[in-house]
TrEMBL record:
Gene3D superfamilies: ATP-grasp fold, A domain, ATP-grasp fold, B domain. Pfam families: Dala_Dala_lig_C, RLAN. This is Carboxylate--amine ligase. The lineage of its organism: Bacteria, Pseudomonadati, Pseudomonadota, Gammaproteobacteria, Chromatiales. It comes from the Bacteria. The keyword Repressor does not apply. GO terms for molecular function: ATP binding; D-alanine-D-alanine ligase activity; metal ion binding; ribosomal S6-glutamic acid ligase activity. Keywords: ATP-binding, Ligase, Manganese, Nucleotide-binding. Residues 291-479 form the ATP-grasp domain.
Amino acid sequence: MPEHLLLVERASYWKGPIDGYPVVTAAEYLTDPVWQQKKGLRIVNLCRSQRYLGEGYYCSLLAEARGHKVIPSVRTLRDLSRKSLYSLATEDLDKQVQRILGRRHKGVETTSFSVTMMFGNSPLRDFQSLGRELFELFRAPLLRVSFEKRGEWRITAIRSLGIQDLSDAQESEFGEALQGYLSRRWRAPRQKRQGRYDLAILHNPNEEMPPSDARALKRFVRAAKKHGLDAELILPRDFARLGEFDALFIRETTAIDHHTYRFSRKAASEGLVVIDDPDSILRCTNKIYLAELLKSNRVATPETVVVRGGGLDELEQRLDYPIVLKVPDGSFSRGVYKVENRAQLEQVARRLFKDSDLLLGQAYTYTRFDWRVGVLNRQPLFVCQYFMSKNHWQIYDHASQEKEGDFRTFAIQAAPKRVVETALKAANLIGNGLYGVDLKETDTGVVVIEVNDNPSIEAGVEDEVLGDTLYETIMLEFLTRIEAGKTPVAARTAGSADSAEGN
């Protein structure tokens, strides 16, 4: 029988309504190798600090990387972080809300109301059906749902709570709800399906370093037309128009706290085929998640240490200088720092810890170039060498006028077999979307540096060998997925956000 684990920020927060289930602090789960190696865990994250890059957020993130089933998943935490995201899913519930509250408050001058849901259960009988619907949408143990009457009653806010938010009077009720939830079989939430044949390509002409230049975008549009897709270049301001399309292709650098994720999440919620899908963005944009995922699946990487506040001594003990220190969600060599000594380490770490509870320390591994293997639907698409920028240790040098190094593109069969195989193993842990895997060849073997959900595809670089075939291959994949009548973009791995969420 699978083992359950309850996570809290402090042991003193646990009110103890149920015996027999281990209670572990977030810090223990994040740092103790026992939990990293344990398989088959079902985790209920009861931390209140679930903000982006907070400790509770990392608990759900690393649970997914370790192949544990967890609620709430990272996708749920992100959905609940912004009304613009969760309101996409709650619009269909407004009639039910009006019916319940219109009847409950008939003749009463009440304009606001809130209720706490525990695993989809409500203390108010007439809210039980709505509670189950909300739990189907947002698998969070504790939700506070707020309603306001603005002509008609509507849901105005949904917030995930921690166990310390419960009152003494709610202890028994929570215990019963938790016991009932853990005794049931866990399953994935319902998925929506999508329609056909119009493709939106999201780009930003003002982006300094876009993943695709103007010439590449034109080639995508031309390739789409060849395969019967009507492709349109859309801008960030076109968010409200997503419902007009059958698929979304994001050609703007992705990030979690950014409109690119909101575009992806809305597209997925409306049943569009989408690349980059929201699960891939969640996984690839966080280097700590990737490090944990690769380590758990025995994919070689430079020696890596997850660093918490106060953990610099341990980092020094495990890695020699120079050390590479990374923020979890940097891109294009941003947020990556090489430190030569303790003074530099403390200075950089102090600055980075202001934005993230965890950092990544990595053994410095210099090579003249990085390999980049493009992967689409679990198959290699292109292979490049990216050389380090002149007189710099990275491909991109943002302080120099000559910002990036040279490149060389290979036919897949001409690239080293172990490089391509390692890249496929890493990318396939994320899903079956479009990825760019960065690797280094060292004296001890090939190591993976990171997996990108939004790889660069520029005219004259990644397409140097395949030419128009590169663009047509990607467009044909969109067409195939649209015609299949389902959305296979989300990962089917054990650690996926869908399979990671329980019933």
